[in-house]
Fold these 4 entries.
Entry 1:
Amino acid sequence: MDYSSTFVSSNYASTPMRAQQAEIILARFMPPSPSQSDIPIHLSTYTPGEDFGRLAKLAKEFGLARIRNQKKQIRKGIPKLAITNGQQQQQQSSHDRQPALRYIFSGYSIWLELEQQEIDNNGVGDLEFAVKEAADEFHLGGAIPAPHVTALYGITTIATDEEAINIFRNDVVKAITNRAEKQRKESTGNAGKLWPDLAATGIIVGAEYDGVNGGEMDMAWTEISFATSPEHESLISELYDIFYRRDTTRLAAANASLTDEKKEEYPPRTQPWVPHLSICYDNPEGFGTILTRQSFQDFLKNKCPTLAAAAESSDSTVKLTRAVSGVSLWNTAGTMADWKCLDRFEFDCVTP
């Protein structure tokens, strides 16, 4: 999930009612004192600003910063859950579905598809099962359409699906295959692999409000985090250049529709890639009540044994490793339900 500030904010996110609702939601979990020492360790989660604005940095990384009026800073500190008889209070009955994710996404995206294990008779692998089961387990309003690790998100330098498909087939696929062929000849790095494997380093349960403590979106989520490497960074930079720096004629045409204030050159990448496999998304009020670190750990342990190691507390930096099995092109404009896959390049179709 690599999101940027170029998302088109929903009406909900831009009205005074949104701020009032956020105040009410957060007040339920705010302690009278700003001290965080009493927060149970199993409820520790990610909150905006703890990693110096990860999402905001990624937005700027892809040259997608927008001009936005700053909103009132609502969250004063890390929310503290009310615990009654050792049980976490829920907003709704466990049998009620949460509302569908309200957030409005934008642009085109390049996704990495990971190798799946324990494929059943219906062809459903462990990762596909995880995203669908998480939506049911947490009674969410929708499941992520397909498990993925985002390589690039919110590409807005493309005008049509047809143009996106053409660039994907002719430039993206060529960049990946040419790199692998070069490494094969030189017998360097992951020689022969079209994309280096990804090593999981842990999990994150996160939440943000757009404009609150540096947040750039209205969303709660769970993820399995992965490590990057020089090989990964080289590939991501090459993909970035394809869409943002290589074709100056196409980029100039795309910029022609922008206001003078928003026109800008797309600089080279400077921040590292932050690869992660999102398991589920929810509206931000689900943070701390529906989605917690403990509930996500329990879900992985009880429902997704092949992924459970990612949440284990151990001295090992690498929890598990997955190969990349392909790359796909998605139109990610609109709500999550609007996303559609435009094309896919499966690595097993390439002869070593």
Entry 2:
Amino acid sequence: MALGGLNPRTLAQKCVCEFWMMCLFVMIGVGTAMSNVQSNCAGTVSPGTCGNTTLSGLSSINPRVFQIALAFGSAIMVLVFASWSLSGGHINTVVTTALMCSGHCSIPEGLALIGSQFAGAMAGCALLAGMIPSDKDGSGGNFGTNQVASGFSQGNAFCGEFVMSFALMFVIYHTAVFQNHKTDSVWANKVKQFAPIAIGMTVFCAHCVLIPITGCSINPFRSLAPLIVGEIRGLPPANTSWDDLWVFFVAPTVAGMLAGLVFPLCWATDEKADDVIRRKTQTDLNIKSDPMSKATQNPIANPRPMRPSRPAQPAPTTQAAPALPTMGPTSVITDSPSLVLQSHDGPMDATQLHQDDAYVVNQDEELPPTVTI
């Protein structure tokens, strides 16, 4: 039985895809923040003594801001391309929530995908825990968790996470969801084919802005899963991720819900007007591409092309049948190549018989010299 009208097999495939994509995303993004140990952290015995260097905006302390931002953005671009045709490439509970609000994803399917995303994030963090020991954690033993940096308030963090999450959903709706019907444009509806690039670059830009402030979340499970696994392994006492966790859940989720409600009310209205333009433009294109139709509308300006005339064929010549002696009333003579029927009215050749459909005469058959009918 289908869940909410969905095919269970198709839904299972989507869930497995989202699980795997989220696992890879966490491993690539959070793993980049953890794998490269800074020089000021090298040789540190107790985790956390050098601090979370990923939260620093000073290039002398943290030259990896660009590297981490590029890793998150590139991961999203590649993984969305890979999962686009199967699950839609959500890889973010904010995206799934927004699509449910706008009606592009059913609630049962959305809840199933959200559960798969959380499981994938936990699996990715578990693999990172097995890959990178605590004393080699480049985030200062904080397991790449998100927390508000020193000197910034939770209000500052909320504003940044909300704006960047809304910007991400704006790009997603206007590239991956919005139907661009302008057939007279060079791009037409091909913008959707480049949507993963635009989405990945948006994530990259968001990380460039927010890494020094919050480490950049814009994805609740990206913040929750490292925090759970890091707590199990042991976080530094100065880590405030649990206190700041509500910011990384509420701000992106509210931004996604708002974008999901704004799209059908405001942004999607462009699709209707655009569809009218599409129909009118398509009619014009059909006229331009069909010269016969265009000539029908304006035969004077666009005369119908003349077909080449065929060469005249010579008229067939007929030869009169030779006169034959008068025979009996009903005799057929086959001595000559043309068969002649002798009737009461005189001789009649085989051509006349065939045209009158009186008899079917086969000249190839060998008949006796005279056949009496």
Entry 3:
Amino acid sequence: MGPLTARVASVAAVLAVCSIESLAYNILENSHLRYGSGSEDSVDPQTGELRQMWYYNEELADDDGGGGGYYYGGGDEGPWFRTTFSTYPYRTSLFANGAKLSRQVPSEISYVSSTQARVVQAFGPLTVTSTYLLVESTRYASHRVCATGVAAAGVGMWEGTNDDYIGRTDGPQERLGTFDADMSFVEGPSGNVLRVFSNDEFLYSYSDFPGTQGLINSCCTWNKIEGRTSSPMRTGTGDNSYGTHYPIGDLAAGECSEIESFLVVRASSEAGLPFIRPGDTAALPGLPSVTTPTTTTTSTKSTLTATATATSATTTTTSATSTTTTTTSTTKTTVTTSTSTKSTVTSTATTATTTTTTTSTTSATSTTTT
């Protein structure tokens, strides 16, 4: 083997390794938003929670004005900025019958595409099916949830963070309010819209689920938000925690309560743009429908086998369950079960195609947004 041949072979080997490493993570990302750092799964396989949301702000791409190391400004990562402090995820809690429900390891995590994932997990006696979607080519993140199971009283869900941060600011401001008839934000003492902002960017969390309430409290633990039905603070300045409460109420056995919510992150130049109403699928094409699940994944073991060359990769996920339904798509899908958290990865040469086959017991999709 001559020097040139050896060098080409070496470069090909490095590219193949990079290809395999990229297959190790399931990342939800569009051109504006991303869940996670980019070197981890977007959904935590143990908790089912979404990782920290990042957003792309090209207006700050060439501005390296400080930030304490909690943002990237024009470096190798590009102008991607965090929306919570450190690496804190976007948290979720459920309460029923006067107590917080214990969260179980998800029975299913399916990455339907590079912008959509489905998670099924138990919270106490309830089963929660979530669909997370980054609407393509927009700054909208949709979260659709269906909670069902045994009869339960006073069911409530909370979403948010224990420690605010946005862009380069560990002390953003928070406001509560509503949208007027033109879907423009109107500040008030309470409301179903939560606004978090600095000089450079704005984050909005909102839903039209009846009784939805934005919450603001002092920093920096999640129990300052979860379990509360009214906001301890009307406005926030400095270091705070924030979230949203969805009062689901009483559930009959087998009844599904569906919630749809949005997270929107905007640069300062986009602050005055009107917002999209929840359920407006014409304005936001690609939103999944909300349907009640009839079954959940029952597989007990999964193995991930990755094959790669310098230019392409093929990923196949198979389940040990014999009674399953098989679907095939052109996007990568991974199913994680509650009894198996490890995957085995091997690499072999293959052709320049991408194919994904997922074998699992599936159900009609039911969901929510964030």
Entry 4:
Amino acid sequence: MRISTAFLIALVPASAAASSTSKYPPPWIPRGGASTKTKQDVRKYRMEQQQLMQLRSMILSEELAKRGIPIPTLQDVSVPNDQKKPEKVDWDCAMATEDEPKSCMLSFDAEANTKVLAPIDSDDWISVSALNRLRRNDPTKVDPMWHSKFAIVESWFSPSSPYALSSSLASRPSTLLLSFVLDHKWALSLSIVGSLFTLVILFLPVLEVLAQRLLVSDFLWMEWPKWARYVHAALPLKMLIVQMSFKYAMQALGKLQNRIRATLIEIESQALEDALPLTVGPGSDVIEMDLTSEAMDGGEGGGEGGEEESESEDDDDDDYVDDEDDDDWGEEEGEF
């Protein structure tokens, strides 16, 4: 049987209600100022929901921008108004030698007989190998090397850019395939797993013989008291053992993948260094073209000088013939 609160209040005398109210709050108001706490909880809840909504809109904007939709992203709002966005830039390639050393932004001085790159009309050089390693391991650190003035990753390593370094690798399809594998992590993982599976198939007869030898060996069955407890263990323990074994196997596969990736990056760096043409300094195409043009100009000048000399010799011969004709005419006149 339920009794309403109004009925209970009506039964209490006014004096008793007044005296009790001075000491204790009415029964319909929670103790401890619940009205203020409720407002704080509501305000906190609204703030959390506002933050979550902003995070969702930010993630959605980033994904839409990746798909080519022109929408502001976090990078657009993080750049101050007085600071320009990184611009695409062409590159210069030079050879660092002992006679003409080049500085490197990562290792102070580049190694001798190695190629270095820099934005065009700039002296901020960096070796090709160091740049390729940096953009493969942490591409977010490439643009800040030039104080975010140039979009180096987008300009030099994007296939759609007119200044892409991969254009020099057009005659090397194997290097382009290697770059594709390094660009996509799933391709590298699939290649490693496929290679291991192929090796297992190739050496399957040998593995079967080794497994048979191991199963009938004295070494295995002499240790039966030690590993028999795992054979007859409960199912949860067996599942835990399988889980831990799978975890260690994946860790080993990850370490193998990292080593193979580091080796492939070095191969790609070497191929890129061999393929890039020199644009400035000794051995560059510009200097060879200048020397060729000077040689051609010198040859033309020599030809003109030869023509002038031949013309002068012809004039001398004509004068000599005229003199001989005058002498012959004088002798004939004397005889007459």
